[in-house]
Amino acid sequence: MNTIIDRHAAHVLSIGQAANAPPFELGTPAQARIDYIAGLPILQGVRDAVASVEDRVLKTADGELTVRIYRGTGAPPQDAPSLLYLHGGGWVIGNLISHDEICRWFANEAGCVVVCPDYRLAPEHKFPAGLTDCLDVLHFMANSATDLGIDPQRIAVSGDSAGGNLASVVALFSRSDHVPAVAAQLLFYPNTDATQTADSYRHYSEGFGLTAATMRWFREHYIRTPDDITDWRVSPLRADSLADAPPAFIALAGLDILKDEGTAYGVRLQQEGVRVISRLWPGQIHGFVSMGRHIPAAREAVVEAVAAWRSLEVLKV
Q: In terms of domain of life, where is this protein from (predicted)?
C-alpha cells in the first residue's frame, strides 16, 4: 500500500484541515452544494480564455436542461472534434461552475468543442435521471453537429469521479444502434463499482480527502433501492460485457478510495478487447484534477488525456 503523498496534494489536505469544515454527510445536500462551490476559488486557478463560451437550454422529455458549450482556441469552425464532459460530485454536488476550469483546459489543449451539461442531481432526482440527461446531450451533439461545427464521428465522452461513472456508462450505451457512437472515453478516477468493497476503500478510507463515509452518503442519495447498487448503469464494472466499448484513457490517483475499481475497470476492458491507456499518479488524492491552483499534475492529467485521445486515433492532428 502506497502512502507517500505528493507534496502539493499534502498542501491541499492541510488547507482542508485548517478550514475544519464538517464533512458533507453531516449536513444536507443543499448545504454540501453551497460549501463545495464556496471552496472552489481556494483550489482552482485562473480560467483559460477560450474562443467562445455559450449556454443553451435544451428541451428534453424530462424538462429543460442547460448545457455550456466551449469552443477552444484553434478549434476548426466545422468538423471539430468534440467532448461531452460530465462533471463529478458524487451525483449530488457540482455544476457548470465547478468544472469550468477543466472544460476550458480540454477545449484549448485539444482544439475541440466541449459540451458540459448541468444534469439533474440526487437526491431530488435519483438514478437514472442524471444519466438520462447525459444521454440526451449526446443525442443533441450528434443531431446538432452541423450547428455546433463538430464532426459527429469524433464525439468523445469524459468525466471525473461520479462524472467518470456517467461517462463510462454513456460509453457502454453507445454500443447500441439507438445511441450515437462515442469515439473514446476519457475517465478520471471513475466510480465503477457501487458496492464499495475494494481494498482501496479500507486503505484510504480517511485522511486523503474523499472518505468512505462521504462516498456512502453520495451513493445512498443516488440510488433508489439497494438493487440499484449492482445495476450495470450504476456499477459498470458489473456489466455482463464490456466488449466493443470505445477505447479508453483512465487516470487514477494512488491515494484514492476509488483506485482499485478504476484499475479493475481498465483491466477488464483490456481483457475484453478494448484499447486502454492507463495512467496512475501514485502520490495523488481523489479529485486532484480539480485542484489546479496548487497541484501541477491537474493540468498535466488533462494534457495526457488529450495525448491519449490522439494516440487512440480518434483526434486528428
A: Bacteria
pLDDT tens digit sequence for 129-144: 999 999 999 999 999 9
**Whole-model pTM?**
0.97
Centroid of chain to Cα 127: 16
Question: Tell me, what's the pLDDT at 317?
Answer: 43
- Can you give the residue ranges of every domain in the chain? 7-311
161 in active site: yes
Q: Which of 250, 283, 291 minimizes the C-alpha distance to 269?
A: 250
Residue 259: strand, helix, or coil:
helix
**Residue 187's beta-bridge partner residues?**
159, 250
C-alpha cell at 314: 480518434
Calculate Rg over the CA atoms of the chain. Answer: 18
Q: Give CA separation, 304 vs 31, 65, 281, 297, in Å.
A: 34, 31, 12, 10
Q: How far apart are CA 83 and CA 182, in angstroms?
A: 9
Quickly count: other Cβ atoms within 10 Å of residue 2's Cβ.
12
- SS3 of residue 85 by DSSP: strand
Question: In whole angstroms, what is the distance from residue 24 CA to residue 200 CA?
Answer: 21
Buried/exposed code over 268-288 (b: 16+ C-beta within 10 A; e: otherwise): bbeeeebbbbbbbbebbbbbb
* Fold (topology level) of 7-311: Rossmann fold (3.40.50)
Q: How far apart are CA 109 and CA 231, in angstroms?
A: 35
Nearest 5°: the CA angle 279, 283, 288 is 75
Per residue in 174-186, pLDDT (tens digit) is 999 999 999 999 9
Residue with cell 467532448: 83
Strand partners, 184: 156
